[in-house]
Amino acid sequence: MNITSEFDTIAAISTPPGEGAISIVRMSGDQAIVIAEAIYQSETKKLTEVASHTLNYGHIYDPESNEVLDEVMVAVMKEPRTFTRENIVEINCHGGMVVVNQILQLLLRQGARLAEPGEFTKRAFLNGRMDLSQAEAVMDLIQAKTEKSKKLALNQLDGKLSGMIKHLRQTILETLAQVEVNIDYPEYDDVEELTSALLKERAVEIKEAIQNLLLTAKQGKILRDGLSTAIIGKPNVGKSSLLNYLIREDKAIVTDIAGTTRDVIEEFVNVRGVPLKLIDTAGIRETEDIVEKIGVERSRKALQEADLVLLVLNQNEPLTQSDRELLQLTKEMNRIILLNKMDLQPHLSREELTEYVENATILEISVHSSEGIDTLEETINQMFFAGKAEERDATYISNSRHIALLEQAEKALKDVIDGIEAGVPVDLVQIDMTRCWDLLGEIIGESVQDELITQLFSQFCLGK
Ligand SMILES: Nc1nc2c(ncn2[C@@H]2O[C@H](COP(=O)(O)OP(=O)(O)OP(=O)(O)O)[C@@H](O)[C@H]2O)c(=O)[nH]1
Ligand SMILES: [Mg+2]
C-alpha cells in the first residue's frame, strides 16, 4: 500500500531562523528522495539507492549552475516508519540563513511545495500515525514553558488522553449495540424498561468519568497557558518593581513618580514550576490625564480577567480610599495581598486590614531588600499545586477545544439521563447518546471537519 500518493511533496526549514551550527531542511512526500537526489552529489551512493533510516554524507549543488552550495548530511527515511508515514528527507546543512534558504529554493525548483505551518504534523495525523489530541500535543510540546507543561504534553502525545476517550466511546458503542439488540429481539415484555435502565446506568458512569477529566481541566489549562496573574494597586506602591524582580529583568519602567506605568505589560515567568502570565498594570486612581485614564481602564480589565490577583499596598503609608476600593473590588477573587516596602517605616499594619478582609493571604514584602519574596513564590506554588499536581501520571485536560467538547458531551449525557427519567422513548434518547459519541470522537479527530483540521494545524510553526 502506498499511502503517500495522495499528497504532493512538501518542504520547509525546520530549525528556528537565525544563526546556528546546523540547520535542517525537511521534506516529506512521495517524491522527497528523488527531489533531494536532484541537488545532491556523493562519491558513494545516490540517495535513491541508500537504505532507509540512514545518514548520508555529500554535497548540495545547484544543477543549473553546477555551483556547490554546502557540505551536508542527509537523513533518508522511507515510508511508512516515519513521522508523517511518508518518505522523509532531512538535509542537515551548515547554519546561516542564506545557505538554508538557497537549499530550500532548490528543492522548490525541483518540484517540492513550501509546507504550510504544521503541515508535517497534519500529515502524520491524516496518514493515521497519530490522532488529533496527540497532534495537538506536539504543538503544546513545542510551546511548553515549564517542566510540568512539557510533561503534560508528553502524556498527551503518549496517547493517554486518547486511550481514555477511546475507552469511553467503546462503552457507548457497546451500550448502543445492546440497545439495538434489545429492541430488535425482545426476549421479555418489559424490554423497554430494561433498556432504559441500562442506558441510564451507562450514561451516569460515563458522565462521571467525563466530570473527573474536567476537574483536571483548570489545572491543566494553567500548566499550559500560564496562570493569568494581575499585579494591581494604586500608583507608586511598587507593582512594576515586583514584576521586574519576579522576571529578573528590568522590563518595566520604575520611577518614584506616581503614574509611571501607562500600559499593561505581560511577561511569562516560571515560579517554582507554576507558569505565570504576569501582568503589570497602571496604578488605579482617578485621573484627568488621558493616557493614564486609558491605562487605568486596562488595569480594570486585566483585573477582571485574572486567575490570580497580587494586590500591592504600600506599608509605608496609611491605608487610602483607593486601597479600600481595591480591597473591596478583589474580595471575591483569588488574591494575595502584599504589604510592600517593609524596609521603610511601617504606617499600615496587618491588623488594620482585617477590618476589610477575612481569611485573605497577607504577606509583608520588600522588593528592595527582597525580603518575603521567597514566601510569596512558595505561596503561589502552594495555592495552585497543593498535592494534586505532583501526581506524575495524571491526565490533565488543558486544551480549550477539548474542554469545550467534554462539556458538550457531559451535557448530552445529562440529556440522556433526564430523558429517561422523563419517560422519553428509547430511540430518542439514543440520539443524545450518539451525539456524545460524536463529540468525544472530535477530541481525537475521528469525527472532525476539514476546516477545523486546517485551522488547528495552522497554529503550528513552520517546518513542524
Ligand atoms: N523602599 C522601597 N521602595 C520601593 C520598594 N518597591 C518599590 N519601591 C520604589 O517605589 C517607587 C515606585 O515603584 P514602581 O515599581 O514604579 O511602582 P508602581 O506601583 O509600578 O507605580 P505606577 O506604575 O506609577 O503605578 C520606586 O521609586 C521604587 O524604587 C520597596 O520594597 N522598598
Ligand atoms: Mg508601574
UniProtKB/TrEMBL annotation:
Its cofactor is K(+). (6S)-5-formyl-5,6,7,8-tetrahydrofolate binds at R26, E90, R129, K464. One of its GO terms (molecular function) is identical protein binding. GO terms for biological process: tRNA methylation; tRNA wobble uridine modification. InterPro entries: G_TrmE, GTP-bd, GTP-bd_TrmE_N, GTPase_MnmE, MnmE_dom2, MnmE_helical, P-loop_NTPase, Small_GTP-bd. CDD domains: trmE, TrmE_N. Homodimer. Heterotetramer of two MnmE and two MnmG subunits. Exhibits a very high intrinsic GTPase hydrolysis rate. Involved in the addition of a carboxymethylaminomethyl (cmnm) group at the wobble position (U34) of certain tRNAs, forming tRNA-cmnm(5)s(2)U34. This is tRNA modification GTPase MnmE. It comes from Vagococcus acidifermentans. The gene is mnmE.
